[in-house]
């Protein structure tokens, strides 16, 4: 398209912006709230600060509990007294928080309060399902509520700052951290990011309220695109792909007013994120207008040396100049910024800028008014583990379950007869609460066995056999336990364990096999090069299959697995992720039909590892693998179909839904005019049930090649048996925009296709044309 015409279209879009969206409108986020006195106050304070005190504000230390890197902070109390510490993480409870804070506000020269942070990722004491499970609910209100409850508990435990949400788009299930995010889709990822920020910071972003916490958006940026799914690995990506496919969730969280950002470990196009000025300053601050502060990830400044950017003092200078305000744990700023200033490697203005942002963060949190934010043992007792929080996590866990298969209505189970409960995860409590467990106590988690007994009642006979270990690799087993895994290793031979399980299964009416991964096999530094069930679990399932009994798989895992055999041979498969404190009860609710599952996967499940990375919003290529399967010269594999096993957005229900053909309010729309897409969905089965109705768009002709489908809206609806509902989505030219080759955000006139369905594959479509606005 000629450049001039394109420029005109960009203008057309800008002039005709409407605020309609395909998702029922969420309240518009308030920007970070500042009071007019903040600048005056900080100017005054900074005038009194020495260089050392300013640098001290940029230093974040770790105390106690778990560490994920090689550096453990020493002499924390003494360092706080010297004014060398801006914040501390990994410690909580009212007593611990008050103790540290009182050193800062009573024993330092300027009495500047500390910032207290922690990895509150999916709950603080009440553990919710892992974020990938939360996303599978497609329920933004419920997700926001999980963050709200986490904020209530964390704030009552003395915390001000949580290292969440993690919004890294992930298309490669080998990467263990896919479990920490919302999956592969930028649109859904953006909505989840906003919901989490609202939940933590409150709807008006007024962080002076003592029951809020400041969120920290991470990991900026593109961490999820680590090559080969290997953690901390390199990312090399075109700007166009970044803007269209990976950056939207970060951008959405910034627009939602997130108070802080964490830089990622990875290299981006040759420059590690933590030293990347384009990323941390040009994009984040100049283009997106971020006003908060930026902290590094764990020891990431020192790691610049291993990235090959020079020794520690140079690394410190590069990071500060790129836009880092706070150095997590590595103490590189503390050691090197003063000498760097003398050598002229950094300027006073660079240091002042970072110090000011840290003080602003503390001011926004109200710490200068009340450094303790009202924490007390009494308040903590009132807030922690309230019964309604337990009910909320059970509800979210049920909603996060995804029914992947259900032949001959194997599920729901009857509350009568006998169940052979088999598998290494059947009795586990520790695994249910997943990784990043904050202050969660796994001993309070309800195991699947406990849940089945409680929900099934006395008429259900449950017998148990372990059947297999989660892994037979002793080295891995020990490593996982060293990280708090609580894995049990049964020393019997695999054959013996399988034999026992088969005997138990033969006596029962139905087999429920709880298989998957341990919590520690996912999360940070938990990449896997094989996506099958680990250890002897598949062999166990094969033996159970031979009994001829109905075989129900309850999967607990943190990533898409390759489940081709399981899909062909199990009668029913329920994906439950790591479901949180109430996991066992929630899964039992689903298995016995007290709750009709409605979750949908937010990452594509491959048939085979070789298909990875696999995602629904791919490009068409010049040789799409459609039509004649004997035509060899197509974008396909010789040994496996190109299609996924379970597509993005997929998930079944105990009932069935019938979709009418989508209808449009017009077949041609002018730039800037909204378009309505309507569809009638009917519950045609025997249960009331919820359905996530999904709307996708394809831009058929563009100045750049465009994805075959892009999610642009969804609605989750409850339909009673036999009920029909006509749903309407509103699309605007805003929803049709994308970043073109020059990185202009444009909607281009031409033909589009709209798809509506219950997942990204099973859809019906209708076309429309977008016309340029009059006069252009
Ligand atoms: C992780 C972050 C986490 C930080 C602090 C790092 O290793 O990448 O996600 O917030 O540690 O614990």
Task: Give your account of this protein's structure.
- With 776 residues, the protein is of the alpha/beta class.
- It folds into 3 domains: 29-380, Alpha-Beta Barrel (TIM Barrel); 402-598, 3-Layer(aba) Sandwich (Rossmann fold); 657-771, Immunoglobulins (Immunoglobulin-like), CATH 2.60.40.
- Helix content is 31%, strand content 17%.
- It contains 23 helices and 27 strands.
- Strands 9-6-5-4-3-2-1-10 form an 8-stranded parallel β-sheet. Strands 11-16-15-14-12-13 form a 6-stranded mixed β-sheet, with helices on both faces.
- Helix 18 (448-456) links the parallel strand 12 and strand 13.
- The longest helix has 17 residues, at 140-156.
- The radius of gyration is 26 Å and the shape is globular.
- The chain starts with a helix and ends in a 5-residue tail after the last strand.
- The model is unreliable at 1-25 and 66-71 (pLDDT under 50).
- The structure holds beta-D-glucopyranose.
- The site of beta-D-glucopyranose (BGC) has 8 residues, from loops.
- Beta-D-glucopyranose binds next to loops.
- This is Periplasmic beta-glucosidase.
- Its main location: periplasm.
- One of its GO terms (biological process) is carbohydrate metabolic process.
- Its EC number is 3.2.1.21.
- Belongs to the glycosyl hydrolase 3 family.
């Amino acid at each position: 398209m000629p450049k001039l015409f394109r420029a005109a279209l960009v203008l057309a879009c800008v002039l005709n912006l409407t605020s309609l969206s395909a998702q029922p409108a969420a309240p518009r986020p308030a920007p970070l709230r500042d009071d007019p006195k903040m600048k005056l106050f900080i100017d005054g304070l900074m005038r009194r600060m020495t260089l050392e005190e300013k640098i001290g504000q940029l230093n974040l230390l770790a105390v106690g509990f778990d560490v994920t890197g090689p550096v453990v902070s020493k002499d924390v109390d003494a360092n706080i007294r010297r004014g060398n510490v801006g914040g501390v993480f990994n410690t909580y409870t009212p007593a611990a928080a008050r103790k540290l804070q009182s050193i800062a506000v009573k024993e330092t020269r300027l009495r500047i309060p500390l910032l207290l942070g922690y990895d509150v990722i999916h709950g603080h004491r009440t553990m919710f399902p892992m974020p990938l499970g939360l996303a599978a609910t497609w329920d933004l209100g419920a997700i926001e509520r999980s963050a709200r409850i986490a904020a209530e508990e964390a704030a009552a435990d003395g915390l001000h700052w949580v290292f969440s949400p993690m919004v890294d788009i992930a298309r490669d299930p080998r990467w263990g951290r896919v479990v920490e995010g919302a999956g592969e889709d930028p649109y859904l990822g953006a909505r989840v990011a906003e919901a989490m920020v609202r939940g933590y910071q409150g709807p008006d972003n007024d962080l002076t309220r003592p029951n809020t916490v400041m969120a920290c958006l991470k990991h900026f940026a593109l961490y999820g695109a680590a090559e080969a799914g290997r953690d901390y690995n390199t990312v090399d990506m075109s700007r166009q792909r970044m803007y269209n496919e990976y950056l939207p969730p970060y951008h959405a969280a910034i627009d939602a007013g997130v108070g802080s950002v964490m830089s990622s470990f990875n290299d981006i196009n040759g420059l590690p994120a933590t030293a990347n000025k384009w990323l941390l300053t040009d994009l984040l601050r100049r283009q997106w207008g971020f006003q908060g502060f930026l902290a590094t990830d764990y020891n990431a400044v020192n790691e610049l040396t291993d990235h090959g950017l020079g020794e520690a003092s140079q690394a410190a200078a590069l990071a500060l100049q790129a836009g880092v305000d706070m150095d997590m744990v590595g103490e590189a700023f503390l050691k090197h910024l003063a000498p760097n200033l003398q050598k002229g490697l950094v300027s006073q203005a660079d240091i002042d800028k970072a110090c000011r942002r840290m003080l602003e963060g503390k001011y926004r949190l109200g710490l200068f008014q009340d450094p303790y934010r009202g924490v007390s043992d009494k308040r903590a007792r009132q807030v922690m583990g309230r019964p309604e929080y337990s009910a909320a996590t059970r509800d979210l866990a049920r909603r996060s379950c995804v029914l992947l298969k259900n032949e001959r209505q194997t599920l729901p189970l009857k509350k009568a007869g006998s169940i052979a409960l088999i598998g290494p995860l059947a009795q586990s409590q520790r695994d249910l609460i997943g990784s990043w467990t904050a202050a969660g106590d796994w001993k309070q988690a309800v195991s699947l066995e406990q849940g089945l007994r409680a929900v099934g009642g006395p008429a259900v006979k449950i017998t148990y056999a372990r059947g297999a270990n989660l892994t037979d690799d002793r080295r891995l087993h020990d490593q996982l336990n060293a990280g708090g895994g609580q894995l049990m290793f049964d020393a019997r031979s695999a054959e013996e364990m399988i034999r026992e399980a088969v005997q138990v299964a033969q006596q029962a009416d139905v087999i429920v096999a709880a298989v998957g991964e341990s919590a520690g096999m996912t999360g940070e530094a938990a990449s896997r090069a094989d996506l099958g069930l680990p250890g002897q679990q598949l062999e166990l399932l094969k033996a159970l299959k031979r009994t001829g009994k109905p075989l129900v798989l309850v999967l607990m895992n943190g990533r898409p697995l390759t489940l081709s055999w399981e899909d062909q041979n199990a009668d029913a498969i329920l994906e439950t992720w790591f479901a949180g404190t109430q996991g066992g009860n929630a899964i039992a609710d689903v298995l016995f039909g007290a709750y009709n599952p409605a979750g949908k996967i937010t990452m594509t499940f491959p048939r085979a590892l070789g298909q990875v990375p696999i995602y629904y919003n791919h490009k068409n290529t010049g040789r799409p693998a459609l039509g004649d399967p004997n035509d060899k010269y197509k974008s396909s594999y010789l040994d496996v179909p190109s299609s996924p096993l379970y597509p993005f957005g997929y998930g079944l229900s105990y009932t069935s839904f019938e979709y009418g053909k989508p209808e449009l309010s017009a077949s041609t729309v002018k730039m800037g005019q909204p378009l309505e897409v309507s569809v009638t969905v009917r519950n045609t089965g025997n249960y009331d049930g919820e359905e996530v109705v999904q709307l996708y768009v394809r831009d058929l002709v563009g100045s750049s090649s465009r994805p075959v489908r892009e999610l642009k809206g969804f609605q989750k609806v409850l339909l009673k048996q036999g009920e029909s509902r006509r749903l309407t989505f509103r699309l605007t030219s805003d929803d049709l925009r994308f970043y073109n080759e020059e990185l202009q955000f444009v909607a281009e006139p031409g033909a589009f296709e709209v798809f509506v369905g219950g997942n990204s594959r099973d859809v019906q479509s209708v076309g429309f044309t977008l016309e340029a606005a009059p006069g252009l």
